[in-house]
């Protein structure tokens, strides 16, 4: 029986009203799917992927979903979003058309294809809303199972809020940890490793997660027999079933067309997860996909006649109709009236969405047509311009590209005429107005962005000596962080009991507890996911990936989810996650990689910081905790035992982000590097000075953002020569650094010699003791590279070495 949240039994009349409301939502959603496909096939939209066939289970999920809860789902959950009041008919079609106005298309303002849903967690100024007062959906992504790691973190946040005291503003993010994180996934995508990694981690952590698997037996055209052992995901997950004295899951199964049983099942799942923080898997089977996978194909090509007939009979909306008639909820005539009204409302909503989308563009079309006609009157190319104007004006449903292409082509015809000024000004203004609709919010545009943080120098005692292990500076700074920020927590492989593999967290778990300084299993993707989900709910997580090479396990989550989050929600969601790792210059193929080129090009949207020592690294952590942006901090693996001065102001000194540091002034050549390699550069510079070559050394400190004050080019203006030293492969990060200096900073203006790079070999170092020396730049390599650059300038002063 459907019950109110007060657990009082509804009267039959109330029950009837609620069921009819649910049916109306389902049929509206179905009509949106049907009409949406037509819009794609007639060319008004580019692509469509819809939730038809999944309507009824999503209604049940919506009933159990409460304010403060979070959804982390995939691209077929339109009925759920409608049922919780976060998606209207007009918004559905605005998403299909890719409307770039967030007031009309609040999910992503056209940055994601339709079917990708999000709610707004932030106010206009970037501050948090009260998430406990609204139903929340984290922003969807297309990569299958990519929503799973984030789901884990969203659920873990409830556990943190329930068990960790003293978190500031906790009441804005959680009602004593009673929120559920609701996941949805298609049955075929349960084959992905991210699904299994997340399922295992949630069972270990015992977090309030309800995972719905929508099972329609197919993954695009591929049947479940090719996807899943025993063709049954709940069957093969039986071993996760929670027993009296174990962790694990409650596993529930329900038919996707059985409205009454779905309601009961979801109520039961919510009760288990919300009260006891036990994860629940709901396997929703016997679902259908009436229009096939997407608008790009037809399921008649891969389903036989028997299957198609079964799908028609057991369509969940049809079955709900039959059930309603059978128990006298509604007569066939009443249902027909609801269906007719739904068709009318969907058609009206579609028309309203199309008009809202096309009318502003049509106005811009008319504006340019008029301008071109005026310009043509005095142009020697009048006929050609009028042809462009006529062709543009004849386009029934123009897009912005067609308008701008026309303007730019006509500009070439009036380069030496009076009309040039008006047209060029129009193009510049139109491009500036339009471009931001496609390019804004990759990084924070609030007052809490990384550039708002000012440098605070470490304070030292007068007799301070360089006699402190770098790892102790990190440790004591983390101690200050955990005291200053009760919402901060760190987790990773070996981070807890032993205080990380390099002792940078020594004693922190004992002092702050196992929830705030936590060991986790060997599962990098979901370590990142834990961080993303918790950051989405107002916590300040630091996700630790033990070594830089292991980041490859998590790079897809970083790239597709975290790096794009602010962009794909147009600044309406944020996850200021700090990712901590360590790397560079260790023995062996799997512990010595420096894939910086891959990283910086895969995760635009995340800052990449490369401190040369632990004081710098600690300063970065202090800076980032005052910002609202995600970042990756790569500590030098061979720097934990190197000696540094002990600061007095732990937790307060701040390393500026995007600012380089000159470690040595010089006049002959500028050497640019970062991280561990800088120590080799400094050694080589001393030796070069002995032969009369005076090098200037620049520590980049951060790769994203890059030298915001353009100090590197100021150095080149003095030395007129540039060498970039990098332990990534040839053409890796060094290519990016050169592009920034030569192209973005116009460094070519000041060069008297060819800018050059010195990188690692194309392979990774062998394990043997000499592997590093023969694979990555050494101080001798640096010396000789600089020497030969100077040999080119003055061969008599610097004769050939070999």
Portion in beta strands: 5-15%
Number of strands: 22
CATH fold type of the largest domain: Rossmann fold
Helix content: 40-55%
CATH class of the largest domain: Alpha Beta
Largest sheet: 7 strands, mixed
What is the number of helical segments per DSSP (H or I, 4+ residues)? 25
Mean pLDDT: 96
Q: Could you tell me how far the N terminus lies from the C terminus, measured between alpha carbons in angstroms?
A: 89 Å
* Gross morphology: globular
Please state the second-level CATH architecture of the largest domain. Answer: 3-Layer(aba) Sandwich
Give the C-alpha Rg: 30 Å
The count of domains is: 4
Low-pLDDT residue intervals, each spanning 5 or more residues = 1-7
Q: What is the CATH H-level superfamily of the largest domain?
A: Thiamin diphosphate (ThDP)-binding fold, Pyr/PP domains
Structural class: alpha/beta
Strand order of the largest sheet: 11-10-12-13-15-14-20
The oligomeric state of the chains shown is single chain
Protein name: 3-methyl-2-oxobutanoate dehydrogenase (2-methylpropanoyl-transferring)
Keywords: Oxidoreductase, Pyruvate, Thiamine pyrophosphate
EC number: 1.2.4.4
InterPro entries: DH_E1, THDP-binding, Transketo_C/PFOR_II, Transketolase-like_Pyr-bd, Transketolase_C
């Amino acid at each position: 029986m459907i019950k109110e949240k007060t657990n009082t039994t509804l009267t039959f009349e109330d029950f009837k009203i609620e069921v009819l409301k649910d049916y109306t939502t389902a049929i509206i959603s179905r009509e949106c799917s049907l009409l949406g496909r037509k819009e794609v096939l007639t060319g008004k939209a580019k692509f469509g992927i819809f939730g038809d066939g999944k309507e009824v289970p999503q209604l049940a999920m919506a009933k159990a979903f409460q304010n403060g809860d979070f959804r982390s789902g995939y691209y077929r959950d339109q009925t759920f979003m409608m049922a919780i009041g976060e998606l209207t008919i007009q918004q559905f079609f605005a998403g299909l058309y890719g409307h770039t106005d967030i007031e009309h298309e609040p999910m992503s303002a056209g940055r994601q294809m339709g079917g990708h849903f999000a709610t707004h967690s932030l106010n206009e100024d970037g501050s948090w809303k009260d998430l406990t007062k609204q139903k929340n959906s984290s922003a969807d992504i297309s990569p299958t199972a990519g929503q799973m790691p984030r789901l884990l973190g969203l659920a873990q946040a409830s556990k943190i809020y329930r068990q960790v005291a003293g978190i500031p503003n906790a009441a804005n993010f959680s009602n004593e940890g009673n929120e559920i994180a609701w996941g949805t996934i298609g049955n075929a995508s349960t084959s992905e490793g991210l699904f299994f990694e997340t399922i295992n981690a949630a069972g270990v952590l015992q977090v309030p997660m309800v995972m719905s698997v929508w099972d329609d037996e197919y993954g695009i055209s591929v049947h479940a027999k090719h996807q899943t052992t025993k063709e049954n995901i709940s069957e093969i997950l039986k071993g996760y079933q929670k027993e009296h004295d174990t962790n694990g899951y409650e596993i529930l199964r329900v038919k996707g067309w059985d409205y009454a049983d779905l309601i009961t099942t979801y109520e039961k799942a919510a009760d288990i997860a919300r009260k006891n923080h036990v994860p629940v898997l709901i396997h929703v089977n016997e679902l259908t996909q009436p229009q096939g996978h997407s608008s790009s194909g037809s399921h008649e090509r891969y389903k036989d006649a028997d299957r198609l007939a079964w799908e028609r009979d057991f369509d969940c909306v049809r079955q709900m109709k039959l059930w309603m008639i059978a128990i006298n909820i509604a007569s066939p005539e009443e249902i027909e009236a609801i269906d007719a009204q739904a068709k009318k409302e969907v058609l009206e909503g579609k028309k309203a969405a199309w008009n809202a989308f096309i009318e502003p563009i049509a106005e811009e079309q008319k504006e340019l047509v008029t301008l071109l006609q005026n310009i043509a009157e005095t142009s020697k190319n009048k006929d050609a311009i009028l042809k462009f104007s006529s062709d543009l004006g004849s386009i029934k449903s123009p897009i912005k590209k067609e308008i701008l292409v026309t303007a730019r082509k006509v500009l070439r015809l009036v380069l030496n005429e009076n009309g040039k000024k008006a047209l060029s000004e129009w193009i510049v203004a139109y491009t500036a107005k339009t471009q931001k609709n496609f390019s804004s919010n990759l990084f924070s545009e609030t007052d809490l962005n990384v550039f708002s943080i000012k440098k605070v120098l470490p304070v030292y005692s007068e007799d301070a000596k360089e006699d402190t292990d770098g790892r102790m500076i990190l440790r004591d700074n983390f101690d200050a962080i955990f005291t200053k920020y009760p919402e901060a927590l760190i987790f990773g492989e070996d981070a807890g009991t032993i205080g990380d593999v390099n002792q940078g967290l020594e004693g922190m778990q004992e002092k702050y507890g196992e929830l705030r300084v936590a060991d986790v299993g060997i599962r990098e993707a979901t370590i990142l996911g834990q961080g993303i989900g918790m950051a989405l709910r107002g916590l300040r997580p630091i996700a630790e990936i033990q070594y830089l090479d292991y980041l490859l396990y998590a790079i897809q989550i970083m790239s597709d989810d975290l790096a794009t989050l602010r962009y794909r929600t147009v600044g309406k969601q944020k996850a200021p996650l700090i990712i901590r790792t360590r790397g560079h210059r260790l023995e062996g193929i799997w512990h010595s990689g420096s894939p910086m080129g891959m990283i910086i090009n895969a995760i635009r949207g995340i800052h990449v910081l490369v401190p040369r020592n632990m004081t710098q690294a600690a300063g970065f952590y202090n800076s980032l905790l005052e910002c609202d942006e995600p970042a990756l901090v790569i500590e030098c693996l061979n720097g934990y035992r190197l000696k540094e001065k002990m600061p007095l102001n732990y937790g307060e000194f701040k390393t500026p982000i995007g600012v380089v540091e000159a470690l040595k002034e010089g006049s002959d050549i500028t050497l640019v590097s970062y991280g561990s390699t800088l120590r080799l550069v400094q050694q080589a510079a001393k030796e070069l000075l002995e032969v009369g070559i005076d090098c200037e050394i620049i520590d980049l400190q951060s790769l994203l953002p890059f030298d915001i004050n353009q100090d590197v080019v100021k150095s080149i203006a003095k030395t007129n020569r540039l060498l970039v030293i990098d332990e990534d492969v040839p053409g890796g990060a060094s290519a990016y650094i050169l592009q920034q200096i030569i192209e973005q900073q116009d460094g070519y203006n000041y060069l008297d010699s060819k800018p050059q790079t010195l990188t690692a070999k194309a392979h990774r170092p062998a394990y043997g003791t000499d592997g590093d020396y023969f694979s990555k730049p050494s101080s001798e390599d640096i010396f000789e590279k600089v020497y030969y650059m100077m040999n080119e300038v003055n061969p008599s002063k610097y004769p050939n070495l070999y």
